[in-house]
Amino acid sequence: MLMRCAAENVRYFSLYPSSFHQNTHEFPEAIRISSDSFSRTFYICVFSGFLLMLSLLWPIVLLLIGLGVMVLEVFLPSGGILGFVSIAAIVASIATAFFEHGPLVGMSMLTVAVLAVPILLALAFRWFPETPLGRRVLPPPPDAANLLPNESARKKARAAVGSVGVAVSPLLPWGRVAVGTSEFDAFSEDGPIDSGVSVDIVGVQGAAIVVRTEVPTATAEPLKPVEASLRPFQKDAGPTQSAQAVSKTLEDFDFDQIDRSPT
């Protein structure tokens, strides 16, 4: 449009090129005509530029509305309604720019939308936790002191490793175990353990102890001496009778059972 206006000005200023030299009395009239033509062309160009800016206003307004509603969706969740309105406005803005002003303006509007959407979303999510709604919706970040176990409790739990405790409550698999006069949170490696069962402390997990069911120590019965096993045969018996009793016992013992190979 501006190039067309410039061409019109050149055409009007080229009026009467030879009359300026041949008829000097016509020079003021030519200047007046050229001045009027320039003024008319200038106003036409200004009005055309205004119409052009006015026609570009709709895609720009639609894009701004879409971006604003998109940010509003972050702060005021609406179940996707505001998000749908935002997408529709942005698409309408790009389509209007393409169909009304050509591919150059359309691609420019598309580029602005592609760059503005992620930037605005990142800023909105960055500021959302600091807003009153964000503080009510999102829980506050945990304190570092609450995340790390107490060091004194960890030392006390490590000192209990290797000792024997008693389950104060059922371990399913977490529960409480008493070790001496102290109680600890405990985790069972052997699955559920009933309360009152003795457990071995085998490790530490945070400030809690890791336990297993106590394995009872096996006690072997003392071996009876041969004299004690032969005593019933030797009671009130002489040497001959005792020897006969031992011989009878050896005869009754089945030695073939020992040599028999398992099937």
Would you give an account of this structure?
60% of the residues lie in helices and 12% in strands. The longest helix has 49 residues. The protein has eleven helices and five strands, in the order αααααααβββββαααα. It has two domains: 129 residues, no CATH class; 65 residues, Nucleic acid-binding proteins (OB fold (Dihydrolipoamide Acetyltransferase, E2P), Beta Barrel), CATH 2.40.50. It is rod-shaped and about 115 Å long. With 263 residues, it is an alpha+beta fold. The chain starts with a helix and ends with a helix. It has a five-stranded mixed β-barrel with strand order 1-2-3-5-4. Helix 3 packs across helix 4.
List the helices and strands and how they pair.
Layout: H1 2-13, H2 19-22, H3 27-75, H4 81-127, H5 132-137, H6 144-147, H7 151-159, E1 164-167, E2 174-179, E3 182-188, E4 198-205, E5 208-213, H8 226-229, H9 231-234, H10 239-252, H11 256-259
Parallel strand pairs: 3-5
Antiparallel strand pairs: 1-2, 1-4, 2-3, 4-5
Helix pairs in contact: 1-3, 3-4
Q: Can you give me a brief rundown of this structure?
A:
This protein has 263 residues and is α+β, with helices and mostly antiparallel strands. It has eleven helices and five strands, in the order H-H-H-H-H-H-H-E-E-E-E-E-H-H-H-H.
List its traits.
263 residues, alpha+beta, five-stranded mixed β-barrel, 60% helix
